[in-house]
Write a structure and sequence with these properties.
The protein is of the alpha+beta class and 130 residues long. It contains 3 helices and 7 strands.
Length: 130
């Protein structure tokens, strides 16, 4: 049985697969970001592009901001890459976005390979994991 949260990530991944099917690999991240935004609109996936997120440090908001590529459904961070291989640094960055946004799940999507790569990453500091 697919949960509501999983169906949201499935729809986002499906939109990314459509973009990759049309464009393939070899473009910059910005090209994929713009194409994915158009696909979100076509598929009626609610999103905010490059939503700035503030960092709370010991009860104080820092002026530094994180800016993920997308926040979809007000509950899923979506970070895009166009690289040959995903690295732990990419995963850490994406999990940090989820942590700062107080969201349980994030998607790390890589358009830089022959086959689309994606990872569902979970925020270990989210309330459900405590």
């Amino acid at each position: 049985m697919v949960t509501k949260k999983e169906s949201k990530t499935y729809s986002i991944i499906g939109a990314a697969m459509e973009v990759h099917k049309v464009l393939g690999c070899g473009f910059s991240e910005r090209v994929y970001q713009e194409a994915l935004e158009k696909e979100f609109i076509r598929q009626s996936i609610p999103y905010e592009r490059e939503k700035p997120l503030k960092v709370n440090y010991k009860g104080e908001m820092l002026s530094a901001e994180f800016i993920p590529d997308f926040v979809c459904y007000d509950s899923v961070i979506v970070e895009l890459k166009a690289v040959e291989q995903l690295e732990d640094l990419h995963r850490a960055q994406t999990i940090n976005y989820a942590h700062v946004a107080n969201m349980n799940v994030a998607l790390l999507i890589n358009f830089g390979t022959k086959l689309l790569e994606y990872e569902r990453l979970y925020n270990p500091k989210a309330p459900q994991f405590r």
